[in-house]
Records
---
Amino acid sequence: MASASNGTSTNQTAGFPIVAIGASAGGIQALSQFFAQVDEHSGMAYVVILHLSPNHDSKLAELLSQVTPLPVNQLTKKERIRPDRVYVIPPNKHLRMEGEFITASPNLREEDRRAPVDIFFRTLAETHGERAEYNEMPRNAIATDLVDEVLPVAEIPQRLLSFTQNLGKVSIHAEAETKPELQQKALREIFAQLRKRTGHDFTNYKQPTLLRRIDRRISILELPDLAAYATFLQKNADEVSSLLKELLISVTNFFRDKAAFQALEQILSGIVEAKTSDDHLRIWVAGCATGEEAYSIAMLCAEHLAKVLDAPKVQIFATDIDEHAIAIAREGFYTINDTADVSPERLRRFFNKEDSGYQIRREIREMILFANYNFLKDPPFSHLDMVTCRNVLIYFNQAAQQRVMETFHFALNPGGILFLGSSESADRFNELFVSVNREQHIFQAHKRRMRSFSGARITAFLPYRHLQAFSNTFHCWEWWRPHGIQRSPSAPA
């Protein structure tokens, strides 16, 4: 939910909802209107983050105290968060969630000053997991089509209250054997509608994750149960699109998990140094979402190529099933909040500053080919030096995870690197991979193995000569043609 001048986030795993509100200096009037309508006993905690210049004290706590009966506290130290209270960011600091506590820390880095709203929303989501539903500043958030409702600011408090009261009222059993027959039938109908209207099959995804997302849609629409939602889905094509966006929602950022990227950088340096200008460095970013991770890998490659006289050619292929996310990735334009985790040096070197954000420079964009691709069913790549697939496997059931790991194993050269997310591991697949850095979730394909693949049948291999960056690699003609590979807009034909 978002008003005309601020973004809001709700979270309910602390035992009560936490509502985070981000705004610029122009949002103070809207915040006053919002808190004038907040119920004194709503049972929610409110956290307000203003994006201001470092030396500007907005006196926000004082202003809000005049319009709301709730206690308003400008944070100066670590505090346990409580319901029916308002917490306000102090000048030249940023807020973070740490379990049940909220902390105010000095802005020591330029990244801290650039995106205080994003930093708090992200830590709220990381602390409380999938129950954190968050939106960015309204203009950007509305453009993503991921906002549930756009309302006058004075109507938001009541809508938040209604949403949190409905959340979790619908009981959906995660295990098939415990689901009533009506629920099982409704779920089958929901998945059938998704498959029919979008072409995406979610039967390989973990059901608890899917059910949480469906439950959220039911709460937003204020429907009584799963069967009612299945009927609503049949009659409303727009809701199929909304549910798909809910299921495909991606959480990503540049250089996500700093320590993991530092470990990967050391490995990548060794790979680059072992190659010459006659070689190619081939990398697949699987589940690339809106492109931040693919561009992060490209920046690391560019930094190391600059240190080598006889540098290899870099070919990065980035794929996702979300066509909207792929379109954003191809454009290569990111807001100030999006680039919060990019160092000032990398911003200057790899981005062009524009009025409302940053554009990835052409030389980085030309390293990457983005495509719509489903690695659960589409034929795999081959002869790759590295595969990165982070925070995707956690959503698949065990059978799908096995299939994906076989795909990655087939795609990699012997000794090739697999980079997984912070909650993922290849330890269960020790016949395929060995650990290189278990703490940072980096693995290596076994060097001695049979090259086999048990997934989709591949019948015709031809060189796709029109794709310059992959002209020396054989690919499946039956796959490449219908999937319509496209370069980033600035890339040469």
---
Amino acid sequence: MRVIVQLWIVAVVFFTLAAGAREAASQALAIDQGPDWTTAARNDFYTRDQGSRIMPLSWMQALQQPNGTPFLEANLGRYGYLPNPADVRGMPVGFTVASQDGVDTIGMTCAACHTREIDVQGAALRIDGGPAIVDFQGFLADLDTAVGTVLATDAAFTGFATRVFTIRLRRTSRRHCAKP
């Protein structure tokens, strides 16, 4: 019985720390991992394309959760993925966007599952290369549900297609406006 109580206390403390880390994510301090682990190296670890392809970015941006909110809401924090303030597209740590045949495609890197934040005395500390506590299976299951919903009815597909078209039109307009 005593061992069970001790395990219960450890579990409560652990999950309390994990929840606190997510709340303080925007103010996380990177752990010193040696002189070669620079900000540039860290950002490269978070965003280097490793060849993984999930789907076109505009599709992922157009997908919705069952409650109608965007699938990518809050940097996928509901699965434990961490925000990446350095990513201009708002992708979480370990998610990449690469152009393939002229189409921006979202993928994942090792950093998605190997970057963690812990809360120590109110300070969020980021550990690169450590085990993340993410719900990858939940992410895939919810992604499957979101895609299945799009395919279920003509109305759902039409709404999705309209959102994809709007996203791509906006992106194209920005690219053309930015050119001299």
---
Amino acid sequence: MLFLSDEKLPNLDNIFSGSRGLTHQLRARAKERERERRRSGSNALSPGLIPRVVRRNERASERAVAELENCVLSLDSPSYQLPVENDDNEDEYTSNPIPHHKRELGRRINKKVNAMWPEHASKITGMLLEFTPTQLVYLLTHDASFKDKINEAADMITSANNDSAGPSSQETPVSSGSKSESKLHINEEEESDNNPLFFQPGKPGYYSPRPGKCSPERLNCFRNVGRVIGLCLLQNEISPLSFNRHVIKYLLGRRVNWHDLAFFDPTLYESLRQLIADSSRSDHTEIFNSLELNYSIQLRPEEGGSTVDLISGGSQVEVAADNVHDYVKRYAEYRMIGNARRALQAMRRGLLDVIPAFHLDGLTAEDFRLLLNGAGEINIRQLMNYTFFSDETAGEGQEKLTKFKKWFWSMVENMTHRQKQDLLYFWTSSPAMPASAEGFQPMPSVTVKPANDHQLPTANTCISRLYVPLYSSKTILRSKFLLAIKTKVFGFV
């Protein structure tokens, strides 16, 4: 999911279209434009007689020139890395930040730049690849504009080198692995705020906000997550993202206590609980002295990775039996709420953008989770009550249909929990059962098609409907379904 990915959103101007790549299409248009110009050199046509495709190409060329004049080169752009030929590597571009559809353009640009500025070729190519494919193709077909942009980029790099090295230092060549190049662009991990929005602090599958640097863009993302949560509740949609208990309580405006830490990090909760129990022992002084605890905590990398004082001068305040309860309370509150407060506030604001606060007043954390994420277990009996069958077998007979229904439900009951989730996802686009029948919109159904042992079941998830051929045996039915839910054969039938 995008919420959990550390990948930047792609520029939609750079996507492929149709069966041929956008880069290929633009290159073909540029060649066609040059041919038309050569043809019209001696026999210029009046504007009214110029072919439409020529006029369109000329307008595109004019737009590209105007856009290039307004484009600003950036030293923050990643350097271009020439791909290494390696037959053993399935994806030679795994570590290359340049999008796939720009790599061929990158090769051509790098070759031309290398002839003019070999010491800066990698950086200049990366800076130019920030332009759209239309602009890049224009540069490649117009040498004068191309040289102007290269010289502009080289001047920026030279100025940056001089500024970072001081007024008395001399310019040194920039190579792909040198220290001087590393000063030209911002370290993406440290300076950007593009880390995943959520992490799993304890039990797998349950997420808490990852605050990052709390930039306005990141906080807006958290607010949008809250809005998505609100829309899921409003439209009876199941969300695949499950949150830790304290996150849900904060969204509901409920008080979070230290016992909620058991759902955040069970191991940490048990350690703190044992610490409280040790405070009542007769040898508590020796125990706390050996632990050497103070009012400061070391955060996990996902939480910032820094050391934080829970109170003013906390690193100098020792934890003992008489203040351990206060320490545990502060520790739990900071780990769950204090460190991610701004992210949680943004999520709650987003939720209240969609659903008024008074509609949440009667909900517990368990109610909220059930409405948002559905039931953890898939109740087959309940699913049977919701489902109806329709006959499109062209008169195969009620007896065969009754036997087929028994085969179907027997197959479902004998599936593993994961297979049941996959089936439900294949059937309804949700891996969990909704909290009530109203969660199905519409109710699930199965349409039995004419007999065909060679066809896989298909599904129309928009209306929660399965299309299943009348298979000749239960074994074939099971094998076809297991294959279908793995290959996800969706579609209208």
